[in-house]
Amino acid sequence: MTMFKTILMLGIFGLLSLSPAYSGQNQSQIVSIVNERDVVSYTSRKNDQQFLSQLLKSHHGLLDTDNLERLLLEQNYIEVLNCLWSEPDASKRCAWLEQMSHQQHPLLMFELAEEYCVQNPSIETYGFKAFPRLIVAARLTAIDAACSSDRSVSVAASYLLETYQGRIVEQLLEKYTEEDFSSYIKEHDKEYRMGVVALEKEVYAPLLSQEANSVPAPSWVFAHGMSAFTNQPNEISEDQFEAIRRQEAKKWIDLALEKERSLR
Asked: Which of 62, 65, 123, 158, CA to CA, is 20 to 30 A from 73?
């Protein structure tokens, strides 16, 4: 992997600071020990064309919307992804993901970012539509991971960012050179930053308000930690989740507002 692609995957402009202990080695170690409930690791299966071919035979896309709503309520994200990945109509995938965006599911935000670039693989789409969603989805994942006493769960945010952004960048580098990317990014630096800030203010708001209980529970990410294999219980009780997420969201929104002031 070139240094250019590595920089992109870790978050352009230093906008992402999630898991200081993260490294590619840590990620590969976690991927090699897959928990069947670990939807974070499962997202990498989208790279496997043979797996996707089998999925088309066993699932029927987004036909059953009632079932999809039930799966989301249950946080059965693996089955949600199976339905989404088996949907052959790209416009239908995108429309459904946009329709669900208000529900604040980090995984669906990652999927929408990638879907935008699949439908319109351009630097402009990446910078103005995909990139802000990738960064904010990763930070939402980090906020949820903070609700686990298993510190290894925190690597999930970086894992998902690398998985989704990696696929997007790989596709775009078939069309653009690294020089194209570098010059365009430099030219639109401020606009990209403002795009992230605007989305952060919108997405973090429910976590700071009385709407916090309407945001999906953070437990979806816990299976990515080593405690999933040791059966170590979470030492953070569910009644602490709201306060922890509010604290983490406030940290990010304060940084976003500070960033906004500096960009004026």
From this structure: 158
- Tokens of residue 223, six digits: 């299976």
Q: What is the mean pLDDT of residues 178-203?
A: 87
- Sign of the alpha-carbon torsion through 122, 123, 124, 126: positive
For residue 219, give its domain range: 3-7+35-263
Amino acid at position 67, single letter: N
Please report whether residue 28 resides in a domain.
Answer: no
Q: Dihedral angle at the C-alpha atoms of 66, 68, 73, 77, nearest 10 degrees?
A: 170
Q: What's the domain count of the chain? A: 1
Residue type present at position 182: S
Average pLDDT over residues 235-244: 94
Q: What is the DSSP letter of 33?
A: S
Q: Classify burial at 136, counting beta carbons within 10 Å of its beta carbon; exposed 0-12, middle 13-18, buried 19 or more.
A: buried
86, part of any domain: yes
Domain-located, residue 14: no
Whole-model pTM over 0.85: yes
Is 229 a domain residue? yes
Q: Which residues contact 99 (CB under 8 A, 6 or more apart)?
A: none
